[in-house]
Amino acid sequence: MREDWLVFGFLVSLFGAEALQMAEAVSSKVPLHIAGHSLGGAIATLFASWYFHAYPDYHLHCLTTFGAPKAVNVKAGNTIKCPIHRFAVRGDFAPHWPPFVPGLVHPVPATWLPPRRQWHGAMKRHDADGYTALVERNT
After folding, report:
1. pLDDT tens figures, 122-135
2. DSSP tag of 68
3. Which residue of 28, 64, 76, 134 lies most exposed, with the fewest beta carbons within 10 A?
4. CATH fold of 3-138, please?
């Protein structure tokens, strides 16, 4: 199996033909922003990598992830040619997941946000609403 087709195969298995239909429906006149939290951030990263591989002439506006786990290898990450905004909260487990998969990386370093004082426990640091509040407060 070719390494550069891994992302496409994973997306098709997740979305079936919907990923292809969504990509084809976007015209070059519409700025496309891709974003996601947690698993949604990993899927957004995979989609951006696949999209730039499948449609190299189209420009995505940006990719933004919040607390996303690692989703791509270096080669797939390097195909993403739009600005990437990656946010992670100190103490959140998800950005470090999966911990023991060689070659799996994030496409860019994170902007690390301080945890809110009232957060206690790992799951509280991974809350989507908390990420939104921290990003608004710290950027």
Report:
1. 556 677 887 888 88
2. P
3. 28
4. Rossmann fold (3.40.50)
